[in-house]
Specification:
Number of helices: 12
Structural class: mainly alpha
Distance between the termini: 64 Å
Order of helices and strands: HHHEEHHHHHEEEHHHH
Radius of gyration: 26 Å
Number of domains: 3
Strand content: 5-15%
Number of strands: 5
Strand order of the largest sheet: 3-4-5
Length: 355
Amino acid sequence: MDKKGITSGFLMAIIISLLIIGFLALGFSTNWRFFREETELDNNLAIIKDHCSLVCLAKLKSEFCTRERNVIIKGKETPEKETCYSLSTSQKYSGTVKKCPGIDCTGVDPSTGGSDPGTGGGSGTGSGTGSGAGTNIYVNMFSEKRDLETLKFLLNYLKDHAVGDRTCSCGTRCDDYAEYLIKYIEYLKTDQTVTDSVREKTGSSLDPLLVLSVIMQESSCIAHPLDDDSLGDNYLGLMQINSNACDSGVFLNKFKGITSRTLSCSRSNSALFDPEYAIFRGVYFINNKASYPNCDQVSGFEYTHPYEKYTPLSHILRKYVGCGDYHSDYVEKVSFRYLELDNIYQSCKDGKCGS
């Protein structure tokens, strides 16, 4: 150490102090953004992805094909504006925003806009407001008959891979679940006890992937979950159906006629704990909800998210979970999962799910 000069330790302390001051200045000037997850101001692709998915689900052609928006990456807007369609076909963004199987934007000019089918009176059968009214898109958005073997691959894949915030804990019965989904949706199509009014609204053509998305949301495919709500009612089984709706005077006998199995709706040993009966009953439960008034026609009910008004799918999911001020994100979660399940299903066709 040189007693007449500055020590090396003192110089090091000065350097460290300056670095700390600089670090603090950078942190305060950027609001510590480099320590936080990206926000909407930093990167809005996640928000755009969600919006485009819902627009696709609603089959809002003009919204998907022509509505332009600014894309923000790392806090900076890109120079060009994008539509959901341009993002889905862009090599740069296609991994984020998916193509929409129900919308063809060919020849649509963003400057002139497009038209959304079903606005007002609807197209096809049925009536009402909202895009796609009468097109039955809630029962099978993709208009594809699901293959049993592919569905088995999918369910086994979902045991270890979450979609949204849910896996499908079907254990050794994944193949059984797939068979039940196909079997009872096919049975529903030919069931002469389904009223004409319900058949007209649904086509009695539920998509197994939609039912699966509901099952994953309700129970993660666990056959015996029991949820006691504040009213004292029990919601049971794979699809968390209220114990009071276990039979409704019809379904136990109908199920026995199909399977020769005798079950009961006793509270301690409810048929709803049986996976086959739960799926059978749940398929009818979803289908029959089509004949109920939409929740926005119920006194005192208001949608918590505007997109819930868009489609029959949104209406049926809201009616399934109930027209009350709870489960505000239910429709969103089940809808997004339904879209993603179809993407994974397509990859399962060659036995390599998720690839």
